[in-house]
Structures are given as structure tokens and as C-alpha cells.
Design brief:
This protein is α+β, with helices and mostly antiparallel strands. The protein has one domain (about 5-110). The protein has two helices and ten strands. It has a four-stranded antiparallel β-sheet with strand order 2-1-3-6, with no helix packed on it. β4 and β5 form a beta hairpin. The longest helix has 12 residues, at about 85-95. The radius of gyration is 17 Å and the shape is globular. The mean pLDDT is about 85.
């Protein structure tokens, strides 16, 4: 995780950078570097799909898809990340439940809108203040 953002108090509270949060549901969104599983306890920084470019990937995620925080130490190098045996066991359990987790995350990302149909938060376009 590179940055965590959380909504301040009140209905019109701003989403600002915070150093830490008491729980996942207090997160508005995070910016994170993503790694691709390369076997056993290792994950690689450069994904196969972009290996010719040699670039890392990053994600801007709302709190819905964030399932857990790995409490163990992650050993980072320039090209890989290696997790502990306990974290690997947890990763494999989550991987076995991939389809059910995808359905759950889709449901968590649904925004209830009064008088309109529900919409997935991933489909909402942000207004960047720039005219097309």
C-alpha cells in the first residue's frame, strides 16, 4: 500500500490522506502496487502481461475489494515480494474461494441510489474538472 485515503467527519467530509485507519471499512480508497503470484511464497513486481515494458502496476481501490491486511512481514526486493508461510496458507485459502469472493466484492461495490438503479462503484466516472 502506497497511500490510504479516508473520509473526514460529516456528510460533506473530504477524502484525505491518512497515516492509518482503525479498520478496512474506514478506508475510502487506497493506492497500491500490485504483484503477480509467481509460485510458492513469491510474487513478482513485473506482471507477465507487461513484462516487455518492464513496468510495475498500480491500483486505485475502494474499500470493497480490500479483504485483509497481511499482519506478517513481507520481504521486498527490487523485483519480488515474499510472504510468510502463514500468509501463504491464507492466500491459498482465498484463492480456492476466488469465485465466491468475486461475487461478494461486486455486491460490496454496489452503490444504492434513491430513485435510480443501483450501480457498481467501478462504473462511476469521476469529474476531474476538465471539459471534454
Amino acid at each position: 500500500v502506497i497511500s490510504i485515503y479516508s473520509k473526514g467527519g460529516g456528510k460533506a467530509g473530504r477524502h484525505d490522506w491518512v497515516e492509518q485507519v482503525p479498520g478496512i471499512r474506514k478506508i475510502s480508497y487506497i493506492l497500491a502496487q500490485t504483484f503477480e503470484h509467481s509460485g510458492s511464497r513469491s510474487f513478482q513486481r513485473i506482471h507477465r502481461a507487461t513484462s516487455m515494458l518492464g513496468v510495475s502496476r498500480f491500483a486505485h481501490l475502494p474499500s470493497g475489494p480490500i479483504l485483509i491486511r497481511i499482519p506478517d512481514t513481507v520481504n521486498l526486493t527490487l523485483s519480488t515480494a515474499e510472504i510468510t508461510r502463514a500468509a501463504t496458507t491464507l492466500f491459498n485459502r482465498l484463492l480456492a474461494e476466488r469465485e465466491a469472493l468475486a461475487r461478494m466484492i461486486t455486491a460490496l461495490n454496489m452503490v444504492q441510489r434513491k430513485g435510480k438503479g443501483n450501480i457498481n462503484i467501478q462504473d462511476i466516472e469521476e469529474d476531474d474538472g476538465v471539459e471534454d
